[in-house]
Amino acid sequence: SQKIEQNSEALNIQEGKTATLTCNYTNYSPAYLQWYRQDPGRGPVFLLLIRENEKEKRKERLKVTFDTTLKQSLFHITASQPADSATYLCALDFSSASKIIFGSGTRLSIRP
Amino acid sequence: DTEVTQTPKHLVMGMTNKKSLKCEQHMGHRAMYWYKQKAKKPPELMFVYSYEKLSINESVPSRFSPECPNSSLLNLHLHALQPEDSALYLCASSQDLYPGDTGELFFGEGSRLTVL
Asked: N or C: which end of chain B has fewer CB within 10 A?
């Protein structure tokens, strides 16, 4: 069956450093992959979408890569700030019928 | 501010009660979703409506009954729930331009459900 795994349940880094989160998937070849941010008690907020024919995408301090051979996406936050502390979720559409499934999430904490 | 509105924000119900969660969006999106989220877990897909028709039911127990009265509204009817059904219920919508290209999900803030 299809699986999405985010390797780190929690990640703690120093302010100013680059945070790198990993999303791996198996048994599927998605047309695109998405990343979301979720703060406690709130709904997820969309950050970035990367398509299978795109190797890298950037938005301000965020960068996403997509390696369809390794079946892996990396999500980077450069010059991290305490306000970046949140849970980050990757998501895949596992069908052509909007079956969007989320990975387990990584709780990122940026310490001052 | 989210453009997907969910009501109520909080709901406490007994196991014999019947209640409903409501979701509304006015972005012209054609796909709407219900997700269930337990503490420290990712959102878990329950139902997907595409063009007002139920397209995905992830083997959800019949005590949860979705309804899509029109393209802007999505309801989740609750009946005879169990305490383990207590969770944050999230509604989302997407453009769903064509099969295989759903686009980003816009989430509401969720309805926090407690079943006693």
From this structure: N
